[in-house]
Amino acid sequence: MDKTKAVKIAVIGGSGLYKFDHLTPIKEIYPETPWGYPSSKIVIVEDSRGSQIAFLSRHGAGHKYNPSEVPSRANIAALKHIGVEVIIAFSAVGSLREEIKHQDFVLPDQIIDRTKGIRPSTYFESGIVAHTTFADPFCSSLAEIIYSHRHCLGTNITLHHNKTLVCIEGPAFSTRAESHLYRSWGCDVINMSALPEAKLAKEAEISYQMICMSTDYDCWKQDEESVSVEVVVSNLNKNAENAKKLFEEILPDLEKA
């Protein structure tokens, strides 16, 4: 049997998170799907217990895809093809709440879609029609596992849960008016990557949970510098080690789930 097909857990790494140093690479695959090739080669890595995990860089090697260009259908289809049943997706987010500080982590449970319909977002087209429930876009049991390990992040970093994420088109950041609008809607964090990734995982019947890493206050907070790539990357680099630490902590529980 092809060992690659036994891989049950996948990590999709976002901006600034391209590998997990404590995991040993054993294989790279680059499967073609009916929707093209994934963003990058899928790296199969192994932990100290011999379990295999698939790692996929959302934006590709060298960050070559902007959020609107990410081949999400190929990404999810490729992971499904190798037998993935659980996806942990990391993403940078802007905070829309004072209490969600730079470098805090967030587990969203809801999404508001502010993409513009230019991203291919379903497998059910061209004569194949199905309607998938999307009331709960993330997996609550995965969120519970992750939240139970929040103490590994230390006392200076909070892991927030049950928060609402608004996904915008990008690649431009929000206007100030939009940022205040999203706050008035009850949104807590903002990114450009949750959709259609979460929706496609639901269609593929893969359990999916995003772990968000706060890098900035978008542009609503008057006493903060407006969000920029430099601010995001700086805080992402600081977050990377904590992201790796958190994943290492949750991995044994994911393997048992």
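(ticket continues) Second input and output from the same batch:
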Amino acid sequence: MAPGTVTARATGAIIAAISVSMVLFSYLLRKHHSKDHSSKNTKSFSVSKKSPRNGPVGAIGNTPLIRINSLSEATGCEILGKCEFLNPGGSVKDRVAVKIIEEALESGKLVEGGVVTEGSAGSTAISLATVAPAYGCKCHVVIPDDSAIEKSQILEALGAHVERVRPVSITHRDHFVNIARRRAAEANELALKNKKEEQLFVGGKKQSNGHIYEGGTQESSFSSNCKGGFFADQFENLANYRAHYEGTGPEIWEQTGGCIDAFVAAAGTGGTVAGVSNFLQENNPNVRCFLIDPPGSGLFNKVTRGVMYTKEEAEGRRLKNPFDTITEGIGINRLTQNFLMAKLDGAFRGTDREAVEMSRYLLKNDGLFLGSSSAMNCVGAVKVAQSLGPGNTVVTILCDSGMRHLSKFFSAEYLSQYDLTPKATGLEFLESR
């Protein structure tokens, strides 16, 4: 074979090898770049390599923050909703329930085998009933009888003891919160009695004044082996505030990368708006925080006028029933310890019609099936966006889904009684205030 032919073939082989190497390198580079690009831009769709969470309690928190597309496009702002309805117990109150129980156990105010009592319109009660068994505790709940019936059904299914009572003023001894406080005291009295009786037992029989006899435990609404009670007191217990200051607020900050202009939410106990507003403003004082308040609540007046009543009420024309609203779990006519912690720049008033129409609008345009307080929060988000103008990022809380509001907020028959049948096709239902 001629030397030139060998040289040409060798050169061709070298060029071919280099070409193959370049192709392989290019493929690997593209694959690495694609993987890196995907991990940065589609992080929410990647498969987590973290170990499984420790039971339902471990799954609470770290909920998704989603863009509410229809509202964002309508306002020119980025309106984001924190999907708290995806917690195991179905609401934002899961965070509060865990924090309250854990702090009570750490302090010794609650022990394993004890009963957690609470007065609640539903969500906090459901969350407590959901997580209490994980701590070896039971739950006793007192709720107003005008709350949606499915809330009671859920509580009973979870194994909680449920008392439904008529709604009265918080100053009345039989307000559901006051009854729940008494139930905790009764459980503690029973536990103390049981302890004393145990000390009198000799060989499985009780001794009294030198005589031994068989005996049973006095009947009670609590089990005979009750280890005491603890009143959760979600309105005044600052564990509520801490749950959001230590959890919800930091999550929102991280998920937005600190790029947030405003936060808005309604207040029931005030824990959410207080905890989140404090954390966000500590990290950036320019983040503006607002309250959205339903009819009948005095908090709007407190934030905007410094008092809990309206001008009309100040003139002696206060409504006979100030709590004339179909939204549940939000709005209040007193200042709680949790709400007093809030750092607010202003407040907006929401109406029942706005909440109903917003819930249907979001269901139709975004596939979001939300409860009354979540819908009211979205009303607030739009009002904040409109007041600040386009280009801002506004975050709110999607507290719970519509699943526990079927008999009232999503009942056509119920809504028709109050002339609240939804009719809007767009956002024309929003009032400019």
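Agent notes: Residues 366 and 419 are 25 Å apart (CA to CA). The first helix runs from residue 3 to 41. Closing as not reproducible unless the customer responds.
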